[in-house]
Amino acid sequence: MTVPGRRSSTFSRLLRHGFTDPSGAEALLDGPELSALRGDSVLLDALGATADPDLALRGLVRLVEAQPETERQTLIATLLSAKPFRDRLLGVLGASEALGDHLARHPRDWESLVTYEAADLHPGVAEFERGLAEATDAVSLRVAYRRCLLAIAARDVCGTTDVAQAAAELADLATATLRAALAIARTAAPADAAMCRLAVIAMGKCGGHELNYVSDVDVIFVGEPAEGADEPKAIQAATRLASHLMRICSETTVEGTIWPVDANLRPEGRNGPLVRTLSSHLAYYQRWAKTWEFQALLKARAVAGDLELGAQYIEAVSPLVWQAAERENFVPDVQKMRRRVVDNIPAAQVERELKLGPGGLRDVEFAVQLLQLVHGRSDATLHSGTTLDALAALAAGGYVGRADASQLDEAYRFLRAMEHRIQLYRLRRTHLVPEDEDDLRRLGRSLGLRTDPVAALNKEWKRHAAVVRRLHEKLFYRPLLDAVAQLAPGEIRLSPKAAGQRLEALGYADPAAALRHLEALASGVSRKAAIQRTLLPVLLGWFADSADPDAGLLGFRKVSDALGKTPWYLRLLRDEGAAAENLARVLSAGRLAPDLLLRAPEAVAILGDPEGLKPRGRDHLEQEVLAAVGRADDAEQAVAAARGVRRRELFRTTAADLIGSYGTEDNPREQDPGALVDRVGEAVTDLNAATIAGALRAAVRAEWGDELPTRFAVIGMGRFGGHELGYGSDADVLFVHEPREGVDEQEAARAANRVVTEMRRLLQLPTADPPLLIDADLRPEGKNGPLVRTLKSYEAYYRRWSLVWESQALLRAAPMAGDRELADRFIELVDPLRYPMEGLGEDAVREIRRLKARMESERLPRGADPTLHAKLGRGGLSDVEWTVQLLQMRHGWAEPGLRTTRTREALAAAHAAGLIPTEEAQTLDEAWVLATRVRNAVMLVRGRPGDTFPSDPRELAAVARYLGYEPGHVGEMVDDYRRITRRARAVVEELFYGA
User: How far apart, in Å, do the first and last CA atoms of the chain sit?
Assistant: First the structure.
């Protein structure tokens, strides 16, 4: 008797044996069903060895209850006397609630676990066919299928088979099931069966002999007419048989379903005919098939129906599979295949996704298949549909390092074992790791993790996923380094031809040059070469992920050659997590940023500093520039120093823009393109203003010392004044001066003109740094007017002669350099012109519209596509800016928010004031941001300014990547640009032209 308040000894024993509900378990053990087993330590030990002892005990009680009275004693006696049977039965009951339910419904099926002969250990298709032989309809097929599944699961959970063998058995059971289903369909329609030959080709995991417990079974059907039969009628008959086969396996009955049969991998997918002849398949594959379809055919295997026809199909398509790597679009297709398909996974599930998440099963499978496609064309030993067999063949052939292959094999087996156990519990198709503590505990114990199973499971899972996350480095790139560095004696290496093929498949247009760069960087026994061998496998992957891998690798070699002897360079890339990836992104995204970096490679340090990519403010930059100017010996040295600061800051800005646009592994891509545009515009404006301030100081100091005879200011105009400069923009300016007290006006004018001339000369001197072009064409009288005027002269001109276009241009006027008080007075002078009291008159509005229409017809370059010209085209920058500026001139006098030089700010203020509806404001903003980003992208990619998309395919692809499009989506980018700007033009027609 148990003393009240004290635990029974059974309770304590149950706790020790892993029961989480010992009270419930004790009650079940004391029940009448298990009375013959009460107190049996052998049973308790066996239950304690299962994944979930509570679940196993409940399942056992249900099974005993379901037995006829005459059979109960037989079951219990067998359970006590036969250890293999006891381990198998309780192992299944403790791992699978669904199979426990099956045993309760079919209480005699436990007998299938009793026999333990050699033939039972590793059954093949023939054994499973015997197990399904008595099935005559969909219901009996399901019962027989589950009975066979019960035996596979028993061997699996007891460790009699490993995960690869269990997956192969599941594929063999699927083969037998497809054969049985086809036999049932043939019996139901003998006339159809007589009319045609039908072959069932397994694809995917079933074809690869590596099926899950619960998975779609992918198939392709091939049909031919029987001798003397009419082909169209025969194919219709074969289609009816194939459809019936699919229903037999897929439909839900009183015994549930088996698995869905999925024929969507067939030519044309679900839009194509279910059954085709062999010649029809070949015609499609030779003319229309995409790379992913050949990748899928890598696993094709004839499994049911007319096996002779199936063998003919495999023989016919196999050469096409191994020629896929020579197809024209193989490289962009591979880039798409290599990018993980995680976009459709809900964000909350990504980290729990075993199959599609980062470091998941799909990563290993795709990587292995890619290497098979690349190297299998010249090496038949790689022609396996089974992932682990193919990985072993790749290692044996020297295509993958043996140690890396071994690590990946272990990781893949662990992840597949997790997937198997998760699915086995309820026989549901899922790849999500559970969140519930009890589920995780059962999962961990089922994998042999008995001490703190939840913590141990998470640790092991994360460890193996981390190995997989680095698989591209291990599988694709490290063997390339081994091939050129030749440091591991005895290891089979990639041949130069195989290395070239691999680089080509990964997007390198000139594999021979790439191999030369790798050899130069990684050969030898120096510490520098050793660090490069550590870095390069990762860097090569990042380069390959860009639109121009060759340029990335060449740029890296140049930077490394320039900085190789500095002690900090390679240490920075090795130790500062983000620096190497940031550098890879910058070097492979276009010409501008690498050109800026290679002029002064030490700027690479910016990429490793967490604060390094943040733009410096105007005050900070001006202070640095003026200090550098002050230290210089003459004006040319001074401006060279100022331009050096500008080059460094341009690099900082381009790097931040590229990294924000591409994203990195740790920091996702910036989701707000408007924020990227604003940051670039502000940063470039600030550094150009600081550079002009430096040039002004240098020009004054060279001739006049500390003080010019006249006060002098630089007013920014156009995009410069609007803080919207792009990388290729000139600096539009006006120069204003005012003679100091007691200085002759002519002397002051001569001094001001000399300063302007000297500033422009200094800023355009040919040096290694990019020039800063100053454009003063927006001054009164344009190119015919004086370069610099006094404030009084501006006042007289604007009062008497000013035209409406000049008032519009002054909307962008903002102080940039020189005498701030004078600049502020200039702004005060022009405010009434740009924001006229009571707004613009109708004549002025008509004149602005006339000017805009004339500009559209005259200034668009000949031959340019008006739907794709970012500045002057339909819905481009000019359209949006003139619309916003017209609103500013009409309403700026009454709406203070409109009194800004920035387009997006003015547009937001117009919307806030109710002058533009929400949808129209968003449309204009989206088009303006996109057009600005296109111009920035062209400059970043080509290294020279442009207003239209590049014609070169690689440059166009780089623009697309910058704008956030995945490889192969250039057409989508152009379509989106046309759609967005077309909508913007409709708004312009309404708001600007009053249409």
Answer: 97
Beta bridge partners of 218: 262
Residues 6+ apart with CB under 8 A from 780: 789, 794, 797, 798, 801, 802, 806
Helix 877-891 with 970-991: angle, nearest 10 deg: 30
pLDDT range class, residue 2, cuts 50, 70, 90:
very low
Task: Give the E-state strand segments of 59-167 in sequence order.
Answer: none
Counts for the chain of helices (H) and strands (E), in that order:
46, 10
- For 837, the token pair is 């009291």
User: Does residue 446 contact residue 421 with C-beta atoms inside 8 Å?
Assistant: yes
Nearest of 627, 628, 613, 558 to residue 581 by alpha carbon = 613
Helices 69-81 and 83-95 cross at an angle (nearest 10°) of 110
CA-based nearest residue to 421, from 436, 438, 440: 440
> Which residues of 78-147 form beta strands (DSSP E)?
none
- Specify the residue for token string 């229409």: 853
- Whether the CB-CB separation of 148 and 173 falls below 8 Å is answered with yes
Helix (H) or strand (E) holding 261: strand 261-262
Q: Are 891 and 991 in contact (CB under 8 A)?
A: no
Distance CA 480, CA 792 (A): 71
Count CB atoms within 10 A of the CB of residue 436.
9
pLDDT of residue 347: 66
For range 559-580, the mean pLDDT: 86
Instruction: Quote the CA–CA distance of 327 and 257 in Å, as a whole number.
Output: 41
* CA 912 – CA 795 distance, rounded (Å): 33
As a whole-number percent, the residues of the chain with pLDDT over 90 amount to: 72
Is 12 a residue whose pLDDT tops 50?
A: yes
Of these ranges, 39-53, 177-191, 333-347, 581-595, the one predicted with the greatest mean pLDDT is 177-191
Cα separation, 369 vs 253, whole angstroms:
37
Q: Does residue 147 contact residue 105 with C-beta atoms inside 8 Å?
A: no
815: number of Cβ within 10 Å = 20
Amino acid at 640: A
Nearest to 298 by CA among 416, 218, 354, 410: 218
In which residue are the tokens 């800026």 written? Answer: 596
Segment 467-474 shows an average pLDDT of: 82
Beta partners for residue 739, in sequence order:
710
Estimate to the nearest angstrom the gap between the alpha carbon of 399 and the chain centroid.
26
DSSP structure class, residue 265: T
Q: What is the mean pLDDT of residues 202-220?
A: 97
Question: Once rounded to an integer, what is the mean pLDDT over residues 300-309?
Answer: 98
CA 954 to CA 941: how far, in whole Å? 10
The residue behind tokens 């003319």 is 287
Type of residue numbered 788? V
Helix (H) or strand (E) holding 774: strand 774-775
Give Cα separations from 922 to 868, 908, 950 (angstroms): 20, 9, 27
Q: Which residues pair with 217 in a beta bridge?
A: 261
Q: Locate tokens 């089922």: which residue?
A: 446
962 C-beta neighbours (distance < 10 Å), count? 24
How far is Cα 917 from Cα 912, in angstroms, rounded to an integer? 9
Distance separating alpha carbons of residues 228 and 625, to the nearest angstrom: 91
DSSP 217: E
Contact by Cβ (8 Å): 714, 818: yes
